[in-house]
Amino acid sequence: MQLINNSQEIIDIVKRVGKSFAGEFRQSIIPSSKAEFDKALQNIEDRCFSALKDPIFHLYPEIPWAEDDELSSIAQRTPFNDEAYWLCDTMDGAIQYLQHIAGWTINLALIQNGEPVFSIIYDPTSDELFHAEKNKGVKLNGKGLTPNVKKSADIMIAVNEYGHQLKNDHLWKEKASSSYIDLLEKFGVIRNYGPHGLQLAYVAAGRIDLFVQTDLDTNNWLAGILILKEAGYSVLSMEGKTWIWGTEGLIAGSEQALELYFKN
Which positions are annotated as binding Mg(2+) (predicted)? Predict the structure, then answer.
C-alpha cells in the first residue's frame, strides 16, 4: 500500500527546517559546560522534531510518529508495533552543529511493516538532499547516483564508526580497536565523519567506499539503509550476512570494497 501521495511536499518541509537551522549555524557560543551542552542538544532536538512533525502530521494525520530513543538498545532491536510510522533523527550530528562543524543532517524515514520504505537525508550546509522510496530508486538533488568503480584498496576510503551504545558492552574496547586495526591493514584511508546516516548516503554516492560500525545503532542507520538498497548496494552484518533489523553491527560498501574487507 502506497502511503505517500506527494513526496515533494515532504522534501520541501525537510529542506525548510534544515535551512532554518542553517541560518543560525555558528551564530551561538559553543557550550562550555556539560549542563549547557545537554540543554542546547535537547533544545535542538525538541525544536527540530516539532518543526518536522507538525506540518507532516497535517498532511498525513493517519501516520503516527515514533518517539525515537537513540540510547535504548531494546527500542532498536525490533520495529514498533504500528503498521506504519515516521522515525525521525531530528538532527544527526547535533554535536557537530553545536561545535560549529559542518556535517549535520535532518533525517526522516517512513517505516512500513518493519522496513524503511521512504527516507530523506538532508545536509543543509551543502544543500544536498538524498531521497529514496522503495522500488523507486534514489536521487541526490533530483538526479540519480553514479556507482563506485574503484578497484584498488590503496585509494579507497573506509569509515570506522561507533555509536553511543558501544560503551555499554564490556567488550567495546576490543571491538572498536579490532575493527579499526582491521581497516588500517586493508584500506588506504580511514575516517570517522560523524553523522551515520549521511555517511551511508555517501557510500551510495560513491564518496565513501566502505562503512563499518560494530555496535547497535538501528535508528541512525534506517534512512541510509533504504538509500543504499535503492542504489543497489549491499547492507550486511559483521559476519557478511544480510542485515536485518536488530543486528548488532553494519557493513556497507561497493562490491569491490566488500570483497576486499571479507578477504582473509
Answer: 89, 92
